[in-house]
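Entry for pyridoxal-5'-phosphate complex. Fields follow.
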Amino acid sequence: MSVQQDVNYSLQTRLLHHKHKTDPTNGAVSVPIQHASTFHQNGLESFGPYDYARSGNPTRQALEDTIAELESGTAGFAFASGMAAISSTFMMLSAGEHLVITEDVYGGTFRLTTEILTRHGIDHTFVDMTNIQEVKNAILPNTKMIFMETPSNPTMKITPIQEIVQLAKENDCLTVLDNTFMTPVLQRPLDLGVDVVVHSATKFIGGHSDVVAGLAVVKDDFLAEKLHFLQNSLGAILGPQDSWLILRGMKTMHTRMEASSKSANIIARWLVNQAEVRKVYYPGLPNHPGFDVNHRQANGSGAVLSFELADIAAVETLIKKVEIPVFAVSLGAVESILSYPAKMSHEAMPAVEREKRGITDGLLRLSVGLEKTEDLIADLDQALRG
Ligand SMILES: *Cc1c(COP(=O)(O)O)cnc(C)c1O
């Protein structure tokens, strides 16, 4: 009997009981780490499932199968980083084509789009993806891809996914969605009609700030073939050791997402009532402009929130005083991470572009970890009081 055959089990259960829960050769309950770079073939006419480890590796395959199943896809691909997954996916485009992309996209994706794709003849238009009319106006005859990141980073804008998918279908465009902030626990874009889901698995999927990795998932055989060709040709694959670390981290993903999101909700509500805080960005707040859309398309609001203090001096005081969160780039870990988007995730973005997107000098982003909520609030409280 194997659990994964019953698709009615919840994701929480399927995270632990999937196709690779035990090793068929010896029953091991942890996926073996296969370091081999090449595989013996039995003869000219009988090549096995693996030949060379760039093209396929059993440990990486276990991760790729698992993420495909969790995202309701048919094929998954593991890459050396989130940016490797995103850049390999962008390579589906050809010179002369155009893409429409979320304006407050991750800084690395912004840099890739503006400084590398442009050199290869792939043009782009940044849009407020929450504004359907603006997206419609940006679509050109040569637009072939719409790239969404939702919730967006760091002001947590919510894209109405199904409306964008509908628009893309009418215009023969591929849709790609960066699901890093939500994970399949909270949001499953393929079920909403998106063509390709990408992740920085470095964040919530890995969950422990100890591995850099990227994932992509599709549910269409033609796209699967195309992405596998790109993964194998560009070679930005995830190694077996890191694949194992992601598989290990994923086992607790549901529990971590649930606990951290619950805590983030409480902290967001507390921050709203603090005199020193000018603004709180969190899709779980009823007055957040994306609250209803998020409620409709996701199972929760996630564990990341941003808040704005008066100025950079107030930020400096807070980061000097705060004790629990690490002050660092990245997000989505067991420990809470406080970051400063203007000089971290969005440093690659020119200052004028940053200001336009609400990434002011007073803005801080908090990725809520697994500490006791009351302790985090007490710590933020003493730090805010300076
Ligand atoms: C971190 C991040 C990326 C890039 O992923 P890496 O693993 O750092 O290459 C892409 N998108 C989002 C939303 C991210 O947070």
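NOTE: The longest helix spans residues 253-272.
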